[in-house]
Amino acid sequence: MNNPENKEQIITRFAPSPTGYLHAGNYRTALYAYFVARKNGGKFLLRIEDTDRERSEKQYEANIFETLEWLGLEFDGMERQSDRVANHKAYLEKLIKEDKAYISKETPVKEGDRAEVIRFRNPNKVVTFTDLVRGEISVDTTDLGDFVIAKSIDDPVFHLAVVVDDYEMGVNHVIRGEDHIPNTPRHILIMEAVGAPIPKFAHLPIVLAQDRTKLSKRKGALPLTDYRDRGYLPEAMINYMAMIGWNPGGEQDIFTKDEIIDLFDITKVQKGGGIFDDVKLKWVNREHMLKLSPEEYKKNLETFMPEHLSTLDTYKPRIDSVCTIVRDRLEYFKQIQEMYDEGDIEYFFVAPLYDADILLCSEKMRKGKDLTHAGLAKILATCKLELEKLPEEKGEFVEGGEVKWNKESVKNVLWPIAESEGRGIVLWAVRVALSGKEKSPDPFILAETIGRDETLARIQRAETFLKEKTIVS
């Protein structure tokens, strides 16, 4: 057995059990342990606590690795608790030999209870430790009795295994949830019995759901990879989770991972539970999205665009424009797919269907003008005739430069018609002719995005639709 006592370098660990998908509350613990190690030039270790053979599954273990990789929490060493059973057994045998533990004959109360377990011989003393978050804590361990540390010589329980593993892995800062506070006195007793140094402890307040109960799957807590698959950014997730229960002070809310590492102080973590607020998470993610360069933003957005759009060269220029249009609206990148499915941006790529009543603007916008479907068709025909005079070539507007197809040139063509026939009537009709929607970007932006040919084709379709509506009527 090794004695890797390390008095100089801070060593923390994240020790999840692969018995289910972990949520933000679990990974915040990993974050804080990571921050403490990285800020102090220490080591951050991963230990998969998989000794629960019945409930541990490889898919959950794989998700732990996948999540840490996505978050960018690189670890400096990894072990599986199941690979350390021989070490646990050696410590159990030593404790029994020194009469610090003993084999206890039990009277089974219910089916499945063991007739024999290994109990720790409790010295019945007051244990005092200083918690980095909560200050000094004292517990009279007499009430704990001689507690169980193994089901058999080959099957240690959590209390024994975690002490041995932390000791041999050199962990000297144990950062974990406040639900472990009742366990800590037991662990200190075992540490003293095996001659292990007492690490520094930090017991974090639990993360709460909106109703202030413990965060759980039933309370909307998702595996972090679900957020990844929705197009959340890892830096945003780190930023948000770090602030659930900790704040560096000041008005700033948006931080990079490196900035948080520089500012983080485990002693400043609040004692009360923080609330996981999905609305605030979306806001933080949006702020991080807006910090991306246009190229990075587009690259992320294209990942979530419907495949038939992102793979067609004819649509790529439109995607560029859509990126600009939706940049201030999206809270996570998969929203672009949701918007397309709901018809909110579909019109940028697919010619719309029309509703005659929507093409006619409201009476308020007409400002008393009598307008029929036939009359509106004539107005659209005029708009199309004038827009046909513009060149097909796209380009940015340059004052005094060559006229090209862009939102400014389209506006210059349509504006005199709007002044003559009524701004509300003309601009509404052209916009709906291009989008089919009551709500969409203005007609100039739409025309620039879909291009000259598609703009003229859609106005023609709307004109024809209104004429047919007039004949039917």
What are the key terms here?
alpha/beta; 4-stranded antiparallel sheet; 20 helices; disordered N terminus; 473 residues; Arc Repressor Mutant, subunit A; 13 strands
Task: Specify the CATH architecture of the domain at 356-472.
Answer: Orthogonal Bundle
- The name CATH uses for the topology of the domain at 356-472 is Arc Repressor Mutant, subunit A
| Rg over alpha carbons | 33 Å
What order do the strands of the largest sheet run in, or round the barrel if closed?
Answer: 4-5-8-9
Low-confidence stretches: 1-6
Total helical elements: 20
Oligomer: single chain
Q: What's the mean pLDDT score?
A: 92
Q: Which shape, going by the Cα principal axes?
A: elongated
* Computed structural class: alpha/beta
End-to-end span in angstroms? Answer: 93 Å
Determine and state the CATH class of the domain at 356-472.
Mainly Alpha
The count of β-strands is 13
The helix fraction, in percent, is: 40-55%
- Biggest sheet, in brief? 4 strands, antiparallel
How much strand?
5-15%
